[in-house]
Amino acid sequence: MRQCLTNSVLVTRVKAYPLGPGANPRDEGWQPTPAIKVCVTSGLTKKETEKAGITIRHAITKVVKSNKWSK
Amino acid sequence: MDAREIDMIIGNLSGPLCAAGGFCAGTEEVVEHQRISSASYTFSAALPALLSTTASETISMLQEQPEILTALRDNIKAMRAQLDPRSDWVKCTSNVDNPIMILILKPEVVASKGWSTKEQSQLLQDAVDEVRSPGD
Q1: Are A69 and B123 within 8 A, CB to CB?
Q2: Residues B15, B18, B22, B25, CA torsion sign
Q3: Quick one: average pLDDT of B12-32?
Q4: What ipTM was estimated for this complex?
Q5: How would you write the pLDDT of chain A (71 residues) with one tens digit per residue?
Q6: Beta partners for B10?
Q7: Chain A closest CA to B107's CA: distance in Å?
Q8: CB contacts < 8 Å between A and B, how many?
Q9: Measured in whole angstroms, how far is the alpha carbon of residue B44 from the centre of its chain?
């Protein structure tokens, strides 16, 4: 899991069980749904939390709409 | 729900309490079964003193300052309001009260775009990178 702390946002990617080296994609079996894990903390004010939520939402939207992902 | 209808209640100290270890609670039969059947290494290590103190202090703090929890609940609502159902692309699969929010790409979006598990994983990694350092 990689953790990013920026703009008061703590966001990690929930990593699925990694494939062993040289594993054939056909053999991978069940993988959990890829997800992002967002941790809410009481250490931020409500406004800061809202801003963090907006940052996350905009980032997701931007990536989904980017050339790379919208063929 | 009546607690007596649940076979085993488990909790852990390694999440928000920032310690380690956990507990299981159940009826006598369930506890006996666990003691006999569980792997011996489960009970073989003692909790480091530092983490015990951490857990104890955290619980004290939560008991003495309930406003911490009120602030957290307000923040959970604020964060949720921004993400689910407001986002067109992700939804939160965690319980509404959970401060740890798991966001997955909406199944209908995944279906319409035909993304594989690996592609979803890459997309979400890109999103995390974007949060960390916004590109243009």
Answers
A1: yes
A2: negative
A3: 82
A4: 0.71
A5: 333 444 344 444 433 333 333 334 445 677 778 888 887 878 778 888 888 888 888 888 999 999 888 87
A6: B24
A7: 10
A8: 131
A9: 26
Q: Which token pair is B28?
A: 């006598």
Q: Which two tokens stand for residue B53?
A: 């103190």
Which one of A19, A30, A63 makes the best mutation probe of the B interface by having the most chain B beta carbons within 10 Å? A63
pTM: 0.70
Q: How many CA atoms lie within 13 A of B132 on its CB side?
A: 13
Would the CB atoms of B79 and A34 count as touching at under 8 Å? no
DSSP code at position A25: G
Contact A26, A40 (CB under 8 A): no
CB B117 within 8 A of CB B131: no
> Using CB atoms, which residue from A13, A42, A46 is nearest to B128?
A13
